[in-house]
Amino acid sequence: MKPIVALVGRPNVGKSTLFNRLTRTRDALVSDTPGVTRDRIYGACDYGQRDFILVDTGGLESDVEGGLELLAVEQTRQAIQDAELVVFLVDGRLGLHPEDAGIAEELRRMQVPVLLVVNKSEDLDPGVVGADFYALGFGTPLTISAAANQGMGRMVDLVEERL
Ligand code: GDP
Ligand code: MG
Protein backbone atom coordinates (compact mmCIF):
# COMPACT_ATOMS: atom_id res chain seq x y z
CA MET A 1 0.00 0.00 0.00
CA LYS A 2 1.27 3.46 -0.86
CA PRO A 3 1.33 5.91 2.03
CA ILE A 4 -1.44 8.50 2.17
CA VAL A 5 -0.88 12.19 2.80
CA ALA A 6 -3.95 14.30 3.60
CA LEU A 7 -4.17 18.03 2.85
CA VAL A 8 -6.07 19.65 5.70
CA GLY A 9 -6.89 23.26 6.55
CA ARG A 10 -9.57 25.92 6.59
CA PRO A 11 -11.50 26.58 3.38
CA ASN A 12 -9.75 28.80 0.85
CA VAL A 13 -6.16 28.30 2.05
CA GLY A 14 -5.19 26.64 -1.25
CA LYS A 15 -5.48 22.90 -0.59
CA SER A 16 -6.98 22.15 -4.00
CA THR A 17 -4.44 24.36 -5.78
CA LEU A 18 -1.64 22.44 -4.02
CA PHE A 19 -3.25 19.09 -4.82
CA ASN A 20 -3.43 19.96 -8.52
CA ARG A 21 0.16 21.20 -8.49
CA LEU A 22 1.56 18.05 -6.86
CA THR A 23 -0.50 15.62 -8.94
CA ARG A 24 -0.05 17.69 -12.13
CA THR A 25 -3.78 17.43 -12.71
CA ARG A 26 -6.81 19.66 -12.51
CA ASP A 27 -8.82 17.07 -10.67
CA ALA A 28 -9.52 19.28 -7.68
CA LEU A 29 -11.84 22.23 -8.09
CA VAL A 30 -10.16 25.51 -7.21
CA SER A 31 -12.54 28.25 -6.18
CA ASP A 32 -12.72 31.52 -4.31
CA THR A 33 -15.96 30.28 -2.81
CA PRO A 34 -15.02 28.39 0.35
CA GLY A 35 -16.31 24.89 0.76
CA VAL A 36 -16.61 23.63 -2.81
CA THR A 37 -14.67 20.41 -2.14
CA ARG A 38 -17.41 18.25 -0.69
CA ASP A 39 -15.74 14.94 -1.19
CA ARG A 40 -12.34 13.41 -0.79
CA ILE A 41 -10.22 13.53 -3.92
CA TYR A 42 -7.29 11.16 -4.31
CA GLY A 43 -4.30 11.44 -6.62
CA ALA A 44 -0.73 10.20 -6.99
CA CYS A 45 1.97 12.72 -6.17
CA ASP A 46 4.08 13.34 -9.24
CA TYR A 47 7.05 14.90 -7.38
CA GLY A 48 9.86 13.36 -5.36
CA GLN A 49 11.34 9.88 -5.03
CA ARG A 50 8.62 7.92 -3.31
CA ASP A 51 5.13 7.06 -4.43
CA PHE A 52 2.48 8.41 -2.17
CA ILE A 53 -1.18 9.25 -2.47
CA LEU A 54 -2.47 12.75 -1.84
CA VAL A 55 -5.96 13.42 -0.54
CA ASP A 56 -7.58 16.80 -1.01
CA THR A 57 -10.19 17.39 1.67
CA GLY A 58 -13.11 19.72 2.11
CA GLY A 59 -11.41 21.26 5.10
CA LEU A 60 -12.07 21.23 8.78
CA GLU A 61 -14.37 23.95 10.04
CA SER A 62 -15.14 24.03 13.70
CA ASP A 63 -18.45 25.88 13.46
CA VAL A 64 -20.51 23.69 11.14
CA GLU A 65 -24.09 22.96 12.10
CA GLY A 66 -25.07 19.98 10.01
CA GLY A 67 -26.09 18.82 6.56
CA LEU A 68 -23.54 18.90 3.77
CA GLU A 69 -21.00 20.82 5.81
CA LEU A 70 -21.03 18.28 8.58
CA LEU A 71 -20.69 15.50 6.00
CA ALA A 72 -17.61 17.22 4.58
CA VAL A 73 -16.05 17.51 8.02
CA GLU A 74 -16.75 13.85 8.76
CA GLN A 75 -15.16 12.89 5.44
CA THR A 76 -12.13 14.97 6.31
CA ARG A 77 -11.83 13.25 9.69
CA GLN A 78 -11.94 9.88 7.94
CA ALA A 79 -9.23 11.00 5.50
CA ILE A 80 -7.04 12.07 8.43
CA GLN A 81 -7.53 8.72 10.13
CA ASP A 82 -6.47 6.92 6.96
CA ALA A 83 -3.38 9.11 6.48
CA GLU A 84 0.25 8.49 7.46
CA LEU A 85 0.85 12.25 7.48
CA VAL A 86 -1.25 15.41 7.45
CA VAL A 87 -0.07 18.51 5.62
CA PHE A 88 -1.76 21.24 7.66
CA LEU A 89 -2.10 24.16 5.26
CA VAL A 90 -2.61 27.74 6.45
CA ASP A 91 -2.90 31.10 4.66
CA GLY A 92 0.18 33.32 4.99
CA ARG A 93 -1.58 36.37 3.58
CA LEU A 94 -4.36 36.28 6.12
CA GLY A 95 -2.05 35.35 8.97
CA LEU A 96 -2.92 33.21 11.95
CA HIS A 97 -6.68 32.68 12.14
CA PRO A 98 -8.58 31.57 15.26
CA GLU A 99 -9.90 28.56 13.38
CA ASP A 100 -6.33 27.42 12.68
CA ALA A 101 -5.88 26.93 16.40
CA GLY A 102 -9.03 24.81 16.53
CA ILE A 103 -7.79 22.61 13.72
CA ALA A 104 -4.37 22.31 15.38
CA GLU A 105 -6.08 21.13 18.53
CA GLU A 106 -8.11 18.55 16.67
CA LEU A 107 -5.04 17.23 14.84
CA ARG A 108 -3.20 16.88 18.14
CA ARG A 109 -6.17 15.01 19.58
CA MET A 110 -6.12 12.64 16.63
CA GLN A 111 -2.39 12.02 17.24
CA VAL A 112 -1.48 12.11 13.58
CA PRO A 113 1.93 13.35 12.39
CA VAL A 114 1.61 16.91 11.05
CA LEU A 115 3.69 19.01 8.70
CA LEU A 116 2.71 22.68 9.00
CA VAL A 117 2.88 24.52 5.67
CA VAL A 118 2.12 28.20 5.05
CA ASN A 119 0.72 28.77 1.57
CA LYS A 120 0.30 32.06 -0.36
CA SER A 121 3.78 33.09 0.79
CA GLU A 122 5.01 34.29 -2.60
CA ASP A 123 5.49 37.91 -1.47
CA LEU A 124 6.07 37.30 2.22
CA ASP A 125 9.13 37.18 4.48
CA PRO A 126 9.48 33.56 5.63
CA GLY A 127 10.85 34.69 9.00
CA VAL A 128 7.83 36.86 9.78
CA VAL A 129 5.37 34.24 8.56
CA GLY A 130 7.17 31.53 10.49
CA ALA A 131 7.06 33.49 13.73
CA ASP A 132 3.31 34.08 13.34
CA PHE A 133 2.37 30.44 12.84
CA TYR A 134 4.91 29.00 15.30
CA ALA A 135 2.19 29.47 17.94
CA LEU A 136 0.27 26.52 16.47
CA GLY A 137 2.80 24.21 18.12
CA PHE A 138 4.09 22.31 15.09
CA GLY A 139 7.50 23.97 14.97
CA THR A 140 8.76 26.34 12.31
CA PRO A 141 6.47 26.09 9.30
CA LEU A 142 7.57 25.65 5.73
CA THR A 143 6.54 28.53 3.44
CA ILE A 144 5.30 27.79 -0.06
CA SER A 145 3.21 29.24 -2.85
CA ALA A 146 1.11 26.66 -4.64
CA ALA A 147 -0.14 29.26 -7.12
CA ALA A 148 3.35 30.55 -7.95
CA ASN A 149 4.85 27.04 -7.85
CA GLN A 150 7.36 27.88 -5.12
CA GLY A 151 8.66 25.46 -2.50
CA MET A 152 7.12 22.30 -3.99
CA GLY A 153 10.39 20.33 -4.07
CA ARG A 154 11.32 21.25 -0.52
CA MET A 155 7.85 20.40 0.69
CA VAL A 156 7.88 16.96 -0.91
CA ASP A 157 11.35 16.32 0.56
CA LEU A 158 10.00 17.05 4.04
CA VAL A 159 6.91 14.91 3.43
CA GLU A 160 9.02 11.99 2.31
CA GLU A 161 11.32 12.31 5.34
CA ARG A 162 8.30 11.72 7.53
CA LEU A 163 6.75 8.80 5.67
P1 GDP B 1 -9.09 25.34 -0.80
O1 GDP B 1 -10.47 25.81 -0.43
O2 GDP B 1 -8.21 25.25 0.43
O3 GDP B 1 -9.07 24.10 -1.60
O4 GDP B 1 -8.44 26.53 -1.69
P2 GDP B 1 -8.32 26.64 -3.29
O5 GDP B 1 -7.20 25.80 -3.79
O6 GDP B 1 -9.66 26.44 -3.89
O7 GDP B 1 -7.84 28.16 -3.42
C1 GDP B 1 -8.59 29.23 -2.88
C2 GDP B 1 -8.13 30.53 -3.50
O8 GDP B 1 -6.77 30.80 -3.12
C3 GDP B 1 -8.15 30.50 -5.04
O9 GDP B 1 -8.54 31.77 -5.50
C4 GDP B 1 -6.69 30.23 -5.38
O10 GDP B 1 -6.33 30.72 -6.65
C5 GDP B 1 -5.97 30.99 -4.28
N1 GDP B 1 -4.60 30.47 -4.03
C6 GDP B 1 -4.21 29.20 -3.90
N2 GDP B 1 -2.87 29.09 -3.67
C7 GDP B 1 -2.39 30.36 -3.67
C8 GDP B 1 -1.08 30.92 -3.49
O11 GDP B 1 -0.07 30.24 -3.32
N3 GDP B 1 -1.00 32.27 -3.53
C9 GDP B 1 -2.09 33.09 -3.72
N4 GDP B 1 -1.90 34.40 -3.74
N5 GDP B 1 -3.33 32.58 -3.90
C10 GDP B 1 -3.49 31.24 -3.88
MG1 MG C 1 -10.60 22.84 -2.13
Automatic annotation (TrEMBL):
Coiled-coil ranges (or none): none
Q: What range(s) does the EngA-type G domain occupy?
A: 3-163
Q: What residues bind GTP 1, as annotated?
A: 9-16, 56-60, 119-122
Q: Name the family the entry cites.
A: Belongs to the TRAFAC class TrmE-Era-EngA-EngB-Septin-like GTPase superfamily. EngA (Der) GTPase family.
User: Assembly and interactions?
Assistant: Associates with the 50S ribosomal subunit.
State the protein's purpose. Answer: GTPase that plays an essential role in the late steps of ribosome biogenesis.
Stated name of the protein? GTPase Der
- Species of origin reads Thiohalorhabdus methylotrophus
Residue window of the full protein shown? 1 to 163 of 461
